[in-house]
Fold this sequence. Notes:
Blueprint: E1 2-8, H1 16-27, E2 31-37, H2 43-53, E3 56-59, E4 73-74, H3 76-81, E5 86-90, E6 93-97, H4 100-110, E7 119-123, H5 130-136, E8 143-148, H6 151-160, E9 166-170, E10 180-185, E11 201-209, H7 219-222, E12 224-225, E13 229-230, H8 233-248, H9 256-264
Parallel strand pairs: 1-2, 1-3, 4-6, 7-8, 7-10, 8-9, 10-11, 11-12, 11-13
Antiparallel strand pairs: 3-5, 5-6
Helix pairs in contact: 1-8, 4-5, 4-8
Amino acid sequence: MNNYCLIGNPVKHSLSPIIHNFFIFNSKINAGYVAFEVDERDFENFVKFLRLNFDGFNITLPYKQKIFKYLDEVDDVAYEIGAVNCVKVSDGKLTGFNTDYYGIVKTFELFNVDLFDKEIVVVGCGGAARPLFYYLKGKPYKNLIILNRTVEKAEKVASEFELEKVKIISLSHLEIINNCDIIINASSIGLDNGVFMNLKLSVNDFAFDMQYKLNGLTPFLKEVEVDKKSDGIYMLILQAIKSFEIWNNKSYNFDIKKIIKHIEG
C-alpha cells in the first residue's frame, strides 16, 4: 500500500484528501491520502517520519520554503521558484517539486488565455505569487503591474524573477487600475471578512483568483467585471494531478468537471 499525505498548518479545511482519494479510487491503486496539521516545533521529526513511512507528500503553508533543507534533491523549476509543494519519497530519498507552477500553466491553457501584448495586473507578491512570476518570466506581455502592500518587497521579487516591463504600485492605489486585460489575485485579501477591496474593476479578457470558493464566486471575482474568470479550484486540482503523476511515474487523464462535482458533494 502506498501512503500519501499533506502537511501544513492549518490543514483542516483542505480539499487535498478528497481530491487525491478520488484519484486513488478511480485509478484503482492500493493507497491512501490524509492531511496532517504539523506544529513548527515538530516539523523536523515529522519529515523524518514521512521519509520512513510515506511514498510522497504535499506541502502547504507555512512550510513550502522550510522543507528545502531536508530534501536530498530539488527539481530545477522548484529551485528557481524557491518553493516546494510536492515531495517524492524513493528509497528514503526526498525529491522536491513545484506543481503549483504546472497548475497555473494548465489553468491558463484551459481558459485559452493569450498573454501576447496584454496588460497584466497581479495583486500580491507573497509565496502564492512565486510560481506565477516564474510562469510570466519572458512572456510577451505588453506590461506587468504588481500591487502589494509593501512596494519594496514587490520590487525585490520582480528583480529576483528578472521580470521585464514592470510597474510596482502600492495596494492602496488599486482603485486606479481599470480596463487592464488580465488581472490575477495572488493575495489573501478577503479570506477573513468575505470582502476584497469593495471595488468594481472592469477587465477586458480574464480574471484569475488563486483563492477558491465552492458554489459561488470568491470575494475578488465578485468585484471584477469580465466575461471569462476562474478561481483557484482548477489550479488546485491540476497541481494535485501533477503530484499524483510524479509519485506514481504515470500520466493520468482525470475528468476535472467530475472531480469538481465530487468535491461539491
